[in-house]
Amino acid sequence: MIRSVVRGVGSALPRRIMKNSEFEAALDTSDEWIVQRTGIRQRHIAAADETTASLGEAAARAALADGGLTPADIDLIVLATSTPNNTFPATAVEIQQRLGMRHGFAFDLQAVCSGFVFAVATADGHIRNGLAKRALVIGSETFSRILDWSDRTTCVLFGDGAGAMVLEAHEGEGSVADRGVLAASLRSDGTHKEKLYVDGGPSTTKTVGHLRMEGREVFKHAAGMITDVVEGTFAQAGISAEDLTWFVPHQANKRIIDASAKKLGIADEKVVVTVDLHGNTSAASVPLALDVAVKDGRIRKGDLVMLEAMGGGFTWGAVLIRW
Q: Can you tell me the distance from the alpha carbon of 322 to that of 303, in angstroms, rounded to the nearest whole number?
């Protein structure tokens, strides 16, 4: 059977690093308060010349270089983002243009923080169905553009950045020993919309709007929903938590990461955590964490890696990959 094997990964971050202490002058908060409740110590904030498209392009080029490939080798781009450069066309098409590609096809996917996990599963389906041989899967966000900087419950949580992965078609035996995407579980439930959303849009307010969140409600649902899809993916692959080499969760809140890993029975030393460095970068969160763990030598060929995320909607999902 055809498997979608990881050929390369890469990332890109805005130049500016914003420490927690910068919030203290304008908001009733402190570095200690933010770290204690979220685990976040800093985040990157995009400048005017840094956009979802430019960061996505940079991450894509880094992933291509990591895999020894060029844009000419790619025939599909799937961009996960909730902060596109324009309402339309898809920002993926702009990245395609920036890469000098006039072949293949490109589109955006919107599942908020679960976007990259959904995008990996989507690209895998296209590869297995023969619609593409190599796909660039990108998560890129500039959430700083949609934050209410007077709301301390949300503005301290998010940051900007991009991460990318190249998936390539390879023949596998159809077993869990194969390299590549092995299983995935995706879910959504629109009844939770009001718990995490943006209060604007072209068809409603004709504005971009700002991010709004009921933090306690999101936290209350997170661990259970994450457990649901991770255990579903385990069942598909016929493995357990003990078989995992690495768990790469969405980097939203250290307490959610810890609670989810504990509920799943995943040892702390198997969990990749970068929320302290990047904050919540939505669809960029998982690929940014992946790139850090690959570049520092933790994730290696043959490792069994679980990606997981939950986002507004609610959406939630998990993908199991043999590296």
A: 6
